[in-house]
């Protein structure tokens, strides 16, 4: 009697690769400590509007939020009825044009309590939806000039994931927010998870921060290898920079401080550029063009 044939797809097999290519990707951001200038949460809102996301699920707010800290709001409906909207974390789903899988978008305030239960519930959704990868967006305050490109860093918890998406292996030690906790929970159950962070100038941290939001979306384009329609964001980012510059020019001390940040940032950029090869620059440019010419190499897809 012959032995049964094991047809289970294995990592690296073409069948497994095709199966993984159809699984959804989760992108999330949380308001609060992880969201300087509201840059990350507004990136999620942009994706929801751009790709017409539909509601999928929401978490029970009583379990995770202190309503004296994250207060509910009252809104008018049709100018007649008042409705209470409770702060909570909501999931929605969309299918970007030219993309071969769904994106699950997650947004809400950073929870005030029961972080471990909160992360476990998010991971349950990840597993139920058969999510192949989790991408967390965040923004932090930093000593960076508003007149220069927004520094964007990406981190992963293992070398393979970091290498695949050209990110750094996280070596940060210190206090963390819900993004760091949730990323660790995902990794512990075998779900690849990365985070992308934009640096917001600490002297102009009041939201909105469209330039940082735009930088996050550009990096997300690179990770997903798909074009994200940007709408009016580039114009808003330019107007924001001009407004901040005008305000800085009115204060000599602030102007001098901004100049010192520019000089330091330019020196660091020059040093970095000396280490970047021409082949790497050409490869990145080719990837950028491919996103703007869908269909010429089999369509978009996660690398």
From TrEMBL:
Segments of this protein annotated with the region Disordered: 1-20
Listed GO CC annotations: proteasome complex
Assigned keywords, A-Z: Proteasome
The name this protein goes by in its record: PAC2 family protein
Alphabetized InterPro entries for the sequence: Proteasome_assmbl_chaperone_2, PSMG2_sf, Rv2714-like
Biased composition (Basic and acidic residues): 7-20
Domain of life: Bacteria
